[in-house]
Amino acid sequence: MVQLPADYGGGCVGLVLGAILAFSGGAASYNPVLVAGLAVIIFALVLMSQKKPKHLVKIVSASSESNALWSYNPDYIRGIVEAINKAIINRG
Predict the structure, then answer these.
(1) Does residue 18 sit in the same domain as residue 44?
(2) In angstroms, rounded to a whole number, what is the distance separating the alpha carbons of residues 58 and 14?
(3) Residues 77 and 57: beta-carbon distance below 8 Å
(4) Distance CA 15, CA 69 (A)
(5) 22 lies in which domain range?
(6) Domain tally for the chain?
(7) Taking the model in full, what pTM does it have?
(8) Which of 24, 30, 41, 48 falls between 20 and 30 A from 13, CA-CA?
């Protein structure tokens, strides 16, 4: 079982763009650019908080390696790996 970290690339880009919009908006009491920048920052933070790591079942042979199955649920992947291991042991 392999765990891939969550991908925060889109959220980070959103944070940077939102910060650029917010700081270029000035300090007026109501500036649409400032409000848009803050909205982009909030959206990026929500997007980043929803990201989860992927869990993979990796099958390796002498000639190749492949990602057979992936899921966000680690218990599901752990069950698949245990079932494969039991099948290999019972057959061998």
Answers:
(1) yes
(2) 32
(3) yes
(4) 32
(5) 7-49
(6) 2
(7) 0.66
(8) 30
